[in-house]
Design goal:
Distance between the termini: 87 Å
Strand content: 15-25%
Radius of gyration: 26 Å
Structural class: alpha+beta
Shape: globular
Number of strands: 20
Helix content: 25-40%
Length: 438
């Protein structure tokens, strides 16, 4: 009798082990989790007909990410860890002592471990100053705004082992912007002055009321009436937090959101599908002016409040700020919104606009340096321009970068160890000279 039971237990064990693979073969791969891309099916042979040497890795990823019921198993395990051990097994999501969720990748930014160098901060600020200068030359007002991260605003809800260091990248950048006279909107003061949580507990972004307060500050800085936050709101259920979906992919819990009771008056002029569209355009017959908004995911709930105050709005998620859109859209106000943890995008994705011409006198006290220069007709170069990129040796922390081409001095977009400029088409790398202060 014992032998039968032993065999039955062994059979059940092996069937349980085979169930995830059987489910994969029968029902197909499981859906990817919130922050994942689906693993492609493994290929025995490559496109050229040769044996695919990456087959073992592809098979591992396909089975590992697609087994049945993977998402339910992840949810069950993370629920167990949160309930019993008050922690998260997902490195991308941290669990606070009172159930608040935080984005794990942002820890480096607020702890000081991921701080940018002084040169990088200066280059970010100078890039924004050049953007403001170009916008002004096209008759538009420029504003920069960086939404604070949850750690910055609500450290009391973060895990106890997370330390918020003084002198964050955001603080240092705002100081540099003030020194350079770049118009900016600092949301830290207004958000901390409000005695309510303006970010979701289970999401990395602000809620509807937080977006309304941010919009009021931006509109006020642009010289427009900003009175959304003080108005009436309707509470709406059904928001699934991005961090919650990462931690509990099959979970069903939601949070309340808030929408203005007055609603919005604008209408979409683009083929609108969702707030994640790369480009969204709107119009409002009852308002004046034109908005050009460069935004990230925080802009999903922000842009409706702003669009409602402009006759037209062009909202884009592109990483490189294409300032030539000012002429195309007739923008009177340009807003660049970039989250605190991605400020280095200002270095990774230089803005797009013809480089400004400078008086030759700016070269006084500058030094011509060796640079590996390349010139090409980049896909995103402004009309009539060629993209010029180059490397740089060590430069002074606050050194601009000038490029001398055919007797004309241009100021380039500076980087920590390189630069980019958009010079007249036909410019050749030979004969270009690069100047910095060292």
């Amino acid at each position: 009798m014992k032998t039968i039971w032993y065999r039955l237990i062994i059979a059940v064990f092996f069937l349980a082990c085979l169930a995830p693979l059987a489910g994969l073969l029968i029902a197909g791969p499981a859906e990817p989790a919130a922050n994942e891309a689906a693993a492609p099916a493994p290929r025995v042979f490559g496109y050229d007909g040769s044996f695919n040497l990456d087959l073992p890795d592809e098979l591992r990823d396909y089975v590992g990410k697609g087994f049945f019921p993977r998402l339910a198993a992840i949810t069950a395990w993370d629920t167990l860890c949160a309930t019993l051990f008050h922690t998260s097994s997902n490195d991308d999501v941290l669990l606070g002592p009172d159930g608040w969720l935080f984005y794990g990748a942002a820890v480096n930014d607020i702890s000081g471990a991921g701080q940018m160098t002084d040169r990088e901060i200066w280059c970010c600020a100078r890039s924004l100053a050049l953007m403001q200068e170009y916008a002004a030359s096209r008759g538009a007002r420029f504003l920069f705004v960086s939404p604070c991260g949850k750690y910055t605003l609500y450290p009391e809800h973060a895990p106890s082992y997370v330390t918020v260091a003084a002198g964050s990248n955001r603080e240092r950048l705002y100081d540099a912007l003030d020194e350079m006279g770049v118009a900016n909107v600092d949301l830290y003061g207004p958000f901390t002055a409000v005695d309510e949580a303006l970010y979701w507990r289970w999401d990395s972004h602000w809620n509807g009321r937080g977006a309304a307060l941010a919009a009021d500050e931006i509109l006020s800085a642009a010289g427009l009436p900003g009175d959304w936050f003080g108005g009436a709101f309707i509470e709406q259920d059904g928001h699934t937090g991005d961090l919650y979906a990462m931690l509990y992919p099959t979970g069903t819990a939601t949070e309340a959101d808030y929408a203005p009771a007055s609603g919005f008056s604008f209408s979409y002029t683009s083929d609108f599908r969702s707030t994640d569209d790369m480009t969204i355009t709107t119009e409002n017959a009852g308002a004046d002016g034109a908005l050009l908004l460069f935004r990230d995911s925080s802009g999903r709930s922000l842009y409706p409040y702003l669009a409602d105050r402009f006759g037209s709005a062009y909202i884009t998620r592109m990483n490189s700020y294409r300032l030539d859109l000012i002429d195309e859209t007739g923008a009177t106000v340009v807003v660049a919104e970039l989250a605190e943890r991605t400020l280095d995008y200002l270095l990774k994705y230089p803005a797009v606009y013809p480089s400004p011409v400078r008086d030759a006198a700016v070269l006084a006290g500058m030094e011509a340096v060796e640079s590996e220069i390349s010139v090409g007709a980049a896909d995103n170069a402004p009309d009539g321009c060629a993209a010029v990129t180059g490397t740089l040796p060590d430069a002074a922390v606050d050194s601009p970068v000038y490029v001398l081409a055919d007797g004309v001095v241009y100021e380039a977009i500076p980087g920590a160890d390189g630069f980019r400029a958009y010079l007249p088409a036909g410019t050749a790398a030979d004969g270009l000279a690069v100047y910095v202060r060292r």
